[in-house]
């Protein structure tokens, strides 16, 4: 039956791939499987493309899963970017409105010059402004082809900021807390659940310490004013000390039962777990 299928979250990060599978039971979610592996280094000539050998790695992992699964995939965060742009005149209708937005986005987002996948909405915090999320269409296509060749057919493809917010909802976290996730080569920050979605990425070389990181986030996040420093839920892909003014995620408290031993560092699987628990698209 459909509800017996494993729901599998696959996070493809910058340097590491992680997967987590859950199954719905009458008494709650059961953890059935987890897996992680270091990825080959990406090509410097095509950093957005799947690294050499990742297809074989994923194909070998696929053999350990049931035949019928619900697969949800999160691609590397470097493929996505978010910008604010000035909204076009409201009298401008489609398709001209879409053409205008695409041209403005291309001015601000570096890429290979190919088509972009664009999602946009009115920015509730800045009048006459759009909040735009964009990704390179060819890079997404290459990853889809890689997954398909490995026998993996994603029902859902999402990106880490949305997934982290979804996991925060599942864990019933405080709604006014900023989310910060240390991904190894940098940090992903996500606006509180009570606020509209905003996110950003801070490279490790740009923030020598946590205080510097918070200052950089305050510059990027419009919901953090001069006198406003939101409380934080902090998580990390590798074991690390918890910053003094942050709370830790109660990572696996949402599972009723863990069938295999739980991972030695559950926070590393927040994104894979959020994907696995994510609702189906309508």
| Arrangement of strands in the largest sheet | 8-4-1-2-3-14
Task: Characterize the biggest β-sheet.
Answer: 6 strands, mixed
Overall mean confidence score, pLDDT: 85
Annotation, overall tally of beta strands: 14
Q: What's the multimeric state?
A: single chain
CATH topology of the largest domain: Nucleotidyltransferase, domain 5
Helix content estimate: 10-25%
* Shape annotation: globular
CATH class of the largest domain: Alpha Beta
Question: What's the CATH architecture of the largest domain?
Answer: 2-Layer Sandwich
| Secondary-structure content class | alpha/beta
Q: How many helical elements?
A: 6
Spans of at least 5 consecutive residues whose pLDDT stays below 50 are: none
Q: Tell me the domain tally.
A: 3
For the termini, the CA-CA separation is: 19 Å
% residues in beta strands: 25-35%
What is the helix/strand order?
Answer: EEEHEEHEEHEHEEEHEEEH
Explain the layout of strands and helices.
Blueprint (H helix, E strand, L loop, with lengths): L5 E7 L3 E10 L2 E11 L15 H9 L6 E6 L5 E7 L9 H13 L7 E7 L6 E8 H13 L6 E3 L1 H11 L7 E5 L3 E5 L8 E5 L6 H11 L11 E5 L9 E3 L6 E4 L11 H8 L5
Parallel strand pairs: 1-4, 3-14, 4-8, 9-12, 12-13
Antiparallel strand pairs: 1-2, 2-3, 5-7, 6-7, 9-10, 10-11
Helix pairs in contact: 4-6
